[in-house]
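User: Could you walk me through two proteins back to back? I'd like the raw sequence and the structure tokens for each, with a short line separating them so I can tell where one ends and the next begins.

Assistant: Of course. Protein one, sequence then structure:
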Amino acid sequence: MTRSTLETRQSRSSGEAAPTIHVRVGKSDCPSPHSLANKVARVAWATTWLLLFRPTPRLMYGWRRLLLRLFGARIGRNARIAASVHVWAPWNLEVGDESAISHNVDLYSIDRIRIGDHATVSQYAFLCTGSHDITDPRMGLTHAPIEVGDQAWVCARAFIGPGVTVGEGGVAAAAAVVTKDIALWTVVAGNPARLLKERILRTGD
């Protein structure tokens, strides 16, 4: 039996101590939302990742694309996915043509993650489709898909939260914490991420 304590912090004019609310949640009250088939598939993928995906040399992109496709991922032509990329559930992943996912990116694909064509996800970025309902004493799982548009860039160590769409050409700057959609061809930065500027491509080069 685990015990969670929530203390109200509202001040009282009488000076009385704030009441303490105790919520008791047993292990049996928090069943896993994932099916047995899902768990078995993830164990199979984790084993494959550890033995056949993670140890591969940098340039073996084709082999890693093949392994991801075998587990249901939709991977486009010449997509470059680093060996240290962690994918929670490949069957929820789609990566477009000529896109790049750099080392140590975490694709927490409880829900669908779609990365468009010619997009870039830089090192240590975290695309997180899952969360928990903090109003629920059992902290029930919540999830929503993430979409990264064509020619978009998720920079190093950026966090993209559940339900976020990074529009075509959009940029999440380094270490940005993105919880709202990024408009087409704009750059956001900061925590929480805010509009920084428009992204304008040079012409004539």
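----
Protein two, same layout:
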Amino acid sequence: MTDGIKKVLIVGASAKEYALAKKIKSYGCELFVAPGNSVIAEIADCVDIREDNVDELLTFAVQNSIDLTIVPSEIAIKNNIAELFQANEQLIFAPSAKSAEFALSRAAAKKFLYKLRIPTPRFAIFDKPQMAADYLKTAVMPQVIRTDENTSGKDRLVCTTFINAKTFVDDLFARNEKKVVLEDYVYGHEFTLYVVTDGYNALPLAVVANYKFMENGEGGILTDGIGAFTPDYKVSKEVECSVMSDVVDSVLASLQKKDIPYLGILGINCVLKDDGSYVVLDFKPFLSDHDSEAVLNLVDENLLNLFHACAIGSFADDYSMINVSDNASVSCVLSSRTAGKIIKGLDLVDCDITHFPVKRNKYLEYETIAGKTIVLTKTAKTLSRARKYLYEDIEQIEFDGKKYRTDICMQVENF
């Protein structure tokens, strides 16, 4: 058990919280997750408090003598759980709502990148459908169209024609979206650099290759993540160092000047172009659901010590690097076309299984949810071996309407 940290609270209810809970539970502490779900309840004590009810979360933390609260939930971050806990002398690993605005809002991210002169695709932000339609008439296609906030699986689309783009924009405004963000599509290799930071210093945690499109070969619906592998052999050390110095350091310095330092995990989503340059798309205020297990499996540090050091201000003194293993991880999301289908074969696989909010029926069988259902992750000495074992295990899992990409990490040979 980590010295001095006996009780931990995790806030959230999705796959990344489940992956984190498994990692934290291995340290032998008493673990609570709010609100959690029926699957998380198998490994931790779930607390029936909504993510946006930060006052009640604070009351629970105080009454139960929680030593450290960790917040992957974007909902809780947006509701400013960090400032509330800090004001009441509760240790928390999470950014404040103000400091994380650029990671929660795509419009804010784009404006922030432009202000800092960080390379990003040409973009435009609109709050009226007619103005967006006028822009699209002369825009370079394809256009990536997104909502300002990540609200659902249908909040983004890559459009190749004006008609498709205008129809999707009209649909978004018809759903009462306040803003839409339009962006030139950039061809290249998508990756995310994750860092851990106390707001003043940052250390790289992982570089992850992302698969965002539902179909093989980057086709179909654009998602927030359908598969991943790490380490990302396509991203050179020079590119990683450039993102750290030119993006991460610039972002943190700007937030420091505003007196709103960012504390937590920060993901920088990028596209590596064929000429070796990169552009930054947006940011993530924690690990993503589809890659959390892959990243956490490689971390050789005690996460509670690491997060605790950030929360108390000793991060720069205690850490000069974050130790990770020399293994490799590959992840794949299995989606279901419908909910309520029995998932068979989970007991036959050796992969790590990360659940979205699936449930067990009265016969204790896992059932699918509509859309992303589970993430399978395999960690091995090489990417090629991890990929091989991952897809062997995927074949063992059966449910009606199973859908997944078969080309994740396909080009890897000796990595």
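The mean pLDDT is 95.

Let me know if you want the two compared in more detail.
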